[in-house]
Amino acid sequence: MTRRRPPFVLAFLACVGAAFFVAPLLGLVARTPWSDLGEVLGREVVGDALRLSLVTSLGATIVALFLGLPLAWVLARFEFRGRALLRGLVLLPLVLPPVVGGAALLFTFGRRGALGGPLEDLTGLVLPFSIWGAILAASFVAMPFLVITVEGALRNLDQRYEGAAASLGASRWTVLRRVTLPMIGPSLVSGLLLTWARALGEFGATITFAGNLPGRTQTLPLAVFVAMEGDRDAAVAMSLLLVLVSLAVLVTLRNRWWGAR
Amino acid sequence: MTRRRPPFVLAFLACVGAAFFVAPLLGLVARTPWSDLGEVLGREVVGDALRLSLVTSLGATIVALFLGLPLAWVLARFEFRGRALLRGLVLLPLVLPPVVGGAALLFTFGRRGALGGPLEDLTGLVLPFSIWGAILAASFVAMPFLVITVEGALRNLDQRYEGAAASLGASRWTVLRRVTLPMIGPSLVSGLLLTWARALGEFGATITFAGNLPGRTQTLPLAVFVAMEGDRDAAVAMSLLLVLVSLAVLVTLRNRWWGAR
Amino acid sequence: GGDARREVRVSAAASLSDAFLALETQYEAERPEVDIVLNLGGSSALREQILSGAPVGVFASANQANLEQLVTAGLVDGPVVDFATNRLTIAVPAGNPADVRDLADLARDNLLIGLCSPAVPCGDYAATALAIAGVVAAPDTLEPDVRALLTKIRAGELDAGVVYETDIAAAGDDVESVAIPAEINVPVVYSIAAIAEDHRSDAENFIDFVVAGRGRQILRDQGFFLP
Amino acid sequence: MSGGLDARITVLHPGGFHLDAELRLESGHTVAVLGPNGAGKSTLIAALAGLLPLHEGRVALGGRVLDDTELGVWVPPEERRLGIVHQDYLLFPTMSVLDNVAFGLRARGRARSAANRGARDLLAQLDLLQFAGRRPADLSGGQAQRVALARALATEPDMLLLDEPLAALDVTTRARLRHVLADRLAEFPGPRMLITHDPAEAFLLADQIYVLEDGAITQVGSPDDIRLRPRTSYAADLAGANLLVGVASAGEVLVGSHRLTIADTSAQGPVLATIHPRAISLHVVEPGGSPRNAWATSVTRIENYGDRVRVQTAGPLELTAEITPPALHALGIAVGDRIWLSIKATEVGVSAD
Amino acid sequence: MSGGLDARITVLHPGGFHLDAELRLESGHTVAVLGPNGAGKSTLIAALAGLLPLHEGRVALGGRVLDDTELGVWVPPEERRLGIVHQDYLLFPTMSVLDNVAFGLRARGRARSAANRGARDLLAQLDLLQFAGRRPADLSGGQAQRVALARALATEPDMLLLDEPLAALDVTTRARLRHVLADRLAEFPGPRMLITHDPAEAFLLADQIYVLEDGAITQVGSPDDIRLRPRTSYAADLAGANLLVGVASAGEVLVGSHRLTIADTSAQGPVLATIHPRAISLHVVEPGGSPRNAWATSVTRIENYGDRVRVQTAGPLELTAEITPPALHALGIAVGDRIWLSIKATEVGVSAD
Ligand SMILES: Nc1ncnc2c1ncn2[C@@H]1O[C@H](COP(=O)(O)OP(=O)(O)OP(=O)(O)O)[C@@H](O)[C@H]1O
Ligand SMILES: Nc1ncnc2c1ncn2[C@@H]1O[C@H](COP(=O)(O)OP(=O)(O)OP(=O)(O)O)[C@@H](O)[C@H]1O
Ligand SMILES: [Mg+2]
Ligand SMILES: [Mg+2]
User: Fold this and answer.
1) Chain D residues with CB inside 8 Å of E136's CB?
2) Least CB-packed of B69, B123, D19, E9 within 10 Å?
3) Is 0.95 topped by the overall pTM?
4) What is the C-alpha to C-alpha distance for residues D326 and D322, in angstroms, rounded to an integer?
5) Which residue of chain B comes nearest to D93, CA vs CA?
6) Contact of C138 with C107, CB cutoff 8 Å
7) Does ipTM exceed 0.90?
């Protein structure tokens, strides 16, 4: 089918769809103060924020992988009471306004929260105002993408392959690792990229739950927020940095992971 | 495999993952001012906001379906220059801090924007401060979920089924509608639900691009945000309303659409 | 920083960002053994953090309501001090294309008018000012903060909006100010207080610096009025 | 180490299909399961493998209970140690052919290098070494089927369950693989079950044949039993024979309203009569001589297989005769022609129904 | 309306496989394509259907050019009007059986009710009506294959391309469907291509046979040509014959170092000699009498197919003989035994190589 062009209507709609993403970016680029770009991006706050952004988004992706993947698997493969409800709950962080999400996290994981208090007593770990808090907030907001994408893919999968693998003596762990996950590979990659991107852009829940401490919890979106107040050029420059970093990572990873097919 | 329980480690991780979504909700519920719940939810602003939220989120889902689906299909099925870059760009709305995303929309679709100006001259339609603007902002932010989820699923699909359908005389449109889309059904549903939920909870880009006028562009998340500044109890009550509406829709739809398998 | 400097966390309203960034620099230059860590955000988010036990030493708020909630909750340690005032003004895009001259113009139906939401301080103050002037404004949007309002005015999407004078100074060439006469203007008051926490003396020391020390000059430079 | 299989199985499918079977497979023996499409053969394998829940029943392999709905015992598939060729292969699409075959070895704890060595050996035996690096999607149908066979044989299981393992193979490869499989089966210590639609394959490879029809076992016996004394029309088709149901008395079988003379004068009561197509002679005129059964009928179909021709005839008994192409030529008959048919009494096999 | 197929095709697969074939299929005739696994048969169908790009070549059906790499013509699959049975069926898993079969009719513009009626008719003919509401995943292998056949036949295409359409069927159903298919093919106006591994099916259903091996056509001929004068060892296996390559001169063929007497004294130069297994006699002592070819050898394998036994022998010529079970019994031979083998000169078929 490689010789073919897409039919006109669909190609047209796809172009409009693409314009949707490209046009605002061009708008942003048009407003970029290219001359002081170097100066802005050289600032220490910006470097710190970029580093923090990368750490928290990666951390959140890892958390999502370790907690979200099992959750998706259980949701897709096992019948239990309350499954439908749990599936709905997983989407909540998308629906809650980020500030409310952050507040809900504070109610729960803050020092006076139901889980935060005992956690501090046991381990001395205080989540708000620490990078762990930023990772927690980003995970909360971004994990649904992994869970939902992977669950959908698991339901699409012909389970007889898993049965065949089990009959060859593979434990369920091996089946998951060597048969199931590779077979849903593209969807898993999609889910992880969505998760990472969402965590990278996360703002509302983080500023509410983890605060906005430069060098500690101030990720790039938070730095953009602060800069927006006065130095708007710096805000646009930092946004562009965010865009470039994410583009570089997304384009590289996707090509590598999807190239094999 | 229905008789089996999930292995312990995975079940444990899945429970932790589930707690992640359930605990903050419980925190929220614990703070709910049950006594004045009725009063708060009875307010006219709240009713207006709920209606607007439903309209914009549904509108954004429809836009995403009509523009995002073709885009996902073109990305998955055709080779062209710049495809990898376009794929990266699609994820941008996730990465951009919502305020910046909203600002970028203003630069482009605002009255003085590159596209907004001509649009107003041609049709008299002003996007900012109107419900169309709210739908545009929500679409911009939520569409990536549909595109990414569907593209992943399309890449997972065995293309020979599409070839078989074509050989039976089906146009590519028919193939897409009757073979491809049903085969990626669960992923499509996942993508649509993610899109809808994200649009429902959308806050930053909407407030930046479309503004915040009760009865015209003030969706529930905006109302919650505003209430959060002063009347926290009202904010919590409205958040709970948001949660309940989305849970009702998600649980019902998922059960219906996935029940068939 | 991982060094041995004593840390004071200062939560400040987003509209105080520039002023407090400058205050931090100056204070740290004077007292190198202290590390001021700024936590800038919406007043309500800052309030929630403190209510849920976040370790904060100082809270500077754009209005009294948020601080009062903390006082009620018993979290404020020491006096609440008003340290700066501000005034309202009408902001219009560069060149004032809609030819806005006074508050009464905000009632014009054919203009796109923006105000802050009444729930946030700048909207609260604007409502008071409009009431004093006897104007029934026809806003097209009620923005969550001054920054969001200014963004739209700067982009030319709104024809006019009511903001703080200090914001006009920070916004540069894209916006112009149409002054509101003093008799119908409303004094905007910023308050600061120490929050119960360790390093009490450092927190009080920083508040002294802002309220009575060289911080005053910095605030004045940023366009604030001093009580 | 390995022992026989003892199974009593009831499985229900949502559509209303109902499998009810009792099997005993001895260690070191090959049982072929033959049956029409949809008889439940693949269902049987899935149930034995633990991939489909039993509605009721018990499966024990070498004394080890794998499944018992009464006792509530259920051994998961990964602990059953079975080697299965699935009817549609189910090769893992994301792995190379080598990894597919090595998968079972690695899953059972072999080191990667040892597993790969084992897999390569098997691939070599099945002429597949050149495809080791390919993905299953890049194989032809027959190549994929051989990979599936290699994968099942690789793990040294306790029992083999092969669902039409040679169906997609070309004549040459099939003949070769029949030998390889025969040798492999001969040296395999456990019980082995072979599902096939090819009677030659079953007769050649199996010690015992189960005929499964519509979820129930209709005949069990040695290949010769099935071939010479088929008890259902499906089994008769397998043997290529004509099967008649009738009532015997005094050296005759009454089939419908037709009397067939038989050699066995002691047969009495309901019987199955089988007549091999080659035992039927065709004539254009009424035959004389010894055959005690002869009647006139007409030709309904002529099938030319190259080295033999099958001629179907109309009533009273609708028999199929097999003759050589020269004989057909000599007779000069065509569909619709009138013809005489004769069968020696000694050529009619009779067994009690 | 419909006309013949003219195709010259070169297709490359990434792994290095190379298909190079020229075909002419007449309207109203059935061509069987036979070949070993991996010969390129399925590739050929995909290329004709436009599902695989041609590296080079030209395909024309009834004078309409479907593909021409030189002229840059390419008709998309949905406009080629072909009826295809894919080797692995490719039934749409999300549709019911009825919808699968009606799909092509609806895609070609029939109203839903008319399409469903057409689909039901076909399902009835193939004994599938009871499964109309099922999903393909809930069918047995043979049922699914019949649905695939029904789907291909439903659309009244210009040409039929059937890739092993009967491979998964049981003996009874296969015999029945051979008839249905034979009738269907007979009334089908366009060219039809049948891929199969079953020589009987090919001999029965085809007017002409193409033998495809390793991407190239090695023999084209009538069923009798292939059966009686196979030109490759694969074709000989198809015919069940022994094939020898040698040089003829003066009533003899020199095969390796062995001389074989033949009846045809005029044959000269390189020849192919075929010997049918049934034309070979086995003896435990040296035979006397007329056969002009006789030699001693040993038994390497004995295969019992129930009604016939194939005995493979060692050098000098490694021939396979076919005898009856009683004959085997009478000879009393086993693998490894010494044996005499005789062949009449008239039984050795000779054709120029
Ligand atoms: N998942 C299912 N749901 C409902 N019915 C099913 C399912 N799978 C199989 N069946 C039905 O059960 C019966 C037995 O199917 P099975 O696959 O065991 O047959 P089989 O003997 O293997 O046939 P074949 O020779 O065609 O492979 C068939 O009638 C089939 O339609
Ligand atoms: N996608 C592919 N990529 C690379 N090689 C392939 C691909 N598909 C098939 N081949 C190779 O091309 C050759 C021809 O394959 P094809 O499927 O046409 O064989 P076939 O004649 O249909 O065989 P069978 O009788 O086993 O179905 C095989 O050697 C196969 O391994
Ligand atoms: Mg089967
Ligand atoms: Mg093939």
Assistant:
1) none
2) B123
3) no
4) 12
5) B158
6) yes
7) no
